[in-house]
Amino acid sequence: MALVVQKYGGSSVANAELIKNVALKVVESARAGNKVVAVVSALGDTTDDLITKARQLCDSPPDRETDALLATGEQMSSALLAIAICNLGEKAISLHGSQIGIKTDGVYTKAKITQIEGSRIKAALDEGNIVVIAGFQGVTDDEELTTLGRGGSDTTAVALAAELGADYCEIFTDVEGVFSADPRLEPKARLLPVVSYEEMLEMASSGAKVLQLRSVEYGRNYKVELHVRSSFSTNPGTIVKEESFSMEKAIVSAVTHNDSEAKVTIMGVPDKPGIAARVFGKLAENEINVDMILQNVSQSGHSDISFTINEEDIDKARQVMDSLVKELKAKGTDFDTEIARVTLVGAGMKSHPGIAAKMFEVLASNGINIEMISTSSIKVSCVIRKAQIGSAVRELHEAFGLEKNV
Amino acid sequence: MALVVQKYGGSSVANAELIKNVALKVVESARAGNKVVAVVSALGDTTDDLITKARQLCDSPPDRETDALLATGEQMSSALLAIAICNLGEKAISLHGSQIGIKTDGVYTKAKITQIEGSRIKAALDEGNIVVIAGFQGVTDDEELTTLGRGGSDTTAVALAAELGADYCEIFTDVEGVFSADPRLEPKARLLPVVSYEEMLEMASSGAKVLQLRSVEYGRNYKVELHVRSSFSTNPGTIVKEESFSMEKAIVSAVTHNDSEAKVTIMGVPDKPGIAARVFGKLAENEINVDMILQNVSQSGHSDISFTINEEDIDKARQVMDSLVKELKAKGTDFDTEIARVTLVGAGMKSHPGIAAKMFEVLASNGINIEMISTSSIKVSCVIRKAQIGSAVRELHEAFGLEKNV
Asked: How far apart are CA B71 and CA B41, in angstroms?
């Protein structure tokens, strides 16, 4: 008897028919002899609708109340899924963050899980229940409601799978799995049957939206095998697991892109030790994730520092940068939202130098200018103009032969 | 500085504009120097919508999951109201049942409050917050979510007012206060400026929907003065408080009606001791509230027992009665949903005999047949045909001169 954690995203439970479909999938797994824990996101666009409601009342709603508001979405969907499962004749109970002790830090809207108490879930499973968990949320030690940020239900699912010692964690979504590129930009994109944690981490951090970055980190750290599958088919999807010798090692597995970042530049800062630490320290204090960083060569004792952030952090970043400009006596800041990032990811890159050079050549030969570059052992990332992202993805997918079953 | 608990019903917070209106009322009270605790119901028709959603998934959704589902409604509205208050520049936090320790028994969908822990609210008030509470819900000792049944937010408000030692509890609703009859049936109905707890109890239990029965009981038991007011005006409304010598004592204060009850009859039960106890004991076990009871005179060792219940309990009552018929070897049951109840309520009745006789006469002279009668020291209730309820209310309102300021 396997213990399986399943996660169903909002588009998989957007209406009554879809909830029934999910209930059926959960029950099928249970009837096949598995103990099943189902983690569920808020129905369809509920989270966005709630944010809209909050903004109608206040331009910048307090984070604490935003989290209390958003947490209701998954509490609702988890109860509804439990009801739909009961209707199929199986025992089911819904449990939310405070009931099962998903403890988080106190950073509202972006909380991190600090501890999970699995005993109540285990007891419920032992009593023959299918357990439905409200994803995306937890509570602080003071019982304050927190949410884990976008895609947080994935993290809930993987963290639970780790805590419960599940055999694997199935992430059901509205796509068939992980592809060699976004199929909306590149119709020839190929489904990847197996991807290593490291590749998936790079893909998630460079724009692949199918799995949330933190959930992949959790999976890697606790060795939880992830199965990314469609809730609308019975196909096996993509398995994310540890790299092994037997694993097919493509030099380049996928080309990912991210067009929801902005490039921020702080200009004319004094070129002396500690400045960069001050800039990025202050951004970190304000919970702004910085991705790529570029520091220009010093000119007459001053330099420019550029970095990329998520678009949603722009307002907060503007405030931080304004105060930094004053503090550092810098010349000013620039916010550029017309950028995008294209990334090649592949576990095989480690042993194949020259991938970056070929990437730059492909982009250049298609008239695409590279503004920033970032590399790791298994990825190369370039910031380009947003308007060129579609052709960049397609040209790279073609040039590296990703549509073929290499 | 007064401590005030305010309660806002669902129709008072049905959309963003109305929530802003409520926020303004809350803030006005705070700026007038009061410490304010606002208890809020789910937005508009949220509770009904959630029940509909649950029924789309399951004909009889499990009570536990129904409560987990319904509890989200008030959690949502309390966060939204806190956000709207913050937008007006005042500090506000929302708190729900498990955070403030509103403990209940484990009777899902109809739970009773067993204990309230006021310390967290008091601390929040002392920190200068307006505190917004999710009404209608609590948690058991095992942190299971429960709801208090229809109108439960009134009970939450009054129970909190009692626990916190509030100066009074304002119940804001979509009507101007308590009237001498339902203004929809009797346009000449008069607003009652002051009503005693006892009168309000009789009115609530006999069909006046403006306050939930249990909240009035709480108010009486803990001497919490209730102000029933409109959230759409600044009128003082109706004050519900202890009867005092100075209080205007109308012989008859109001005529109320209830057209959502059914009359249940179990026929041909053996006329021996213990039968009634068995019938009503079993109904109580199943959490079915019985109101009026009538036992016919025994004929050949058998009798009929009739009683009234809420329409919403009919399905459950049918099951209970079927098993009782078998157990008691009774002749059968009859369910009559075409009944209604009309009631005269007045604190002055105690010292004025003859009210009942006049009531029967008024009904008879208007061709209205009386099927069951129930009296207390301050009320007389008659079950009649549902189709005649409008004329019964109007004729009694006229005959007892209720439109005049007696």
From this structure: 10
**Shortest Cα distance, chain B CAs vs residue A143, angstroms:** 6
Q: Distance, in angstroms, between B121 CA and closest chain A CA?
A: 14
Confidence band, pLDDT 50/70/90 cuts, at residue A249 = low
Contact list, A66 vs chain B (CB under 8 Å): 79, 83
| Structure confidence by residue, pLDDT tens digits, B257-284 | 999 999 999 998 888 878 888 899 999 8
- Other C-beta atoms closer than 10 Å to the C-beta of B400 total 23
Q: How many CB atoms lie within 10 A of CB A24?
A: 13
Start-to-end Cα distance in chain B: 36
CA distances from A37 to A148, A168, A222, B42 (A): 19, 11, 18, 30
Q: How confident is the model over B225-264, as pLDDT tens digits?
A: 999 999 999 999 999 999 876 565 678 999 999 999 999 9
Which residues in A lie closer than 8 A to residue B87 (C-beta atoms)?
57-59, 61
| Burial zone of A297 (CB within 10 Å; 0-12 exposed, 13-18 middle, 19+ buried) | exposed
> For residue B101, what are its two tokens?
């320790």
Q: Smallest Cβ distance to B87: which of A20, A57, A143? A: A57
HSE value, Cβ hemisphere, 13 Å, CA-based, for A267: 6
* pLDDT for the residue B243: 83
Q: What angle do CA A16, A20, A26 make, to 5 degrees?
A: 145
B56 touches chain A (CB under 8 A): yes
Closest to B400 (Cα-Cα) out of B368, B340, B356, B369: B356
Query: Do residues A1 and A31 lie in contact, with contact meaning Cβ atoms separated by under 8 Å?
Result: no
Q: Which residue has the tokens 């007011």?
A: B229
Pairing label, strands B130-134, B92-95: parallel
* CB nearest to B58's CB, from A66, A83, A144: A83
A291: its two tokens: 């991705």
Edge to edge, the sheet with strand A145-147 lists: A113-116, A102-104, A137-139, A145-147
pLDDT tens, residue by residue, B97-116:
889 989 999 999 989 999 99
A-chain residues near B66 (CB < 8 A): 79, 83
Q: How confident is the model at residue A205 (pLDDT cuts 50, 70, 90)?
A: confident
ipTM above 0.90, yes or no: no
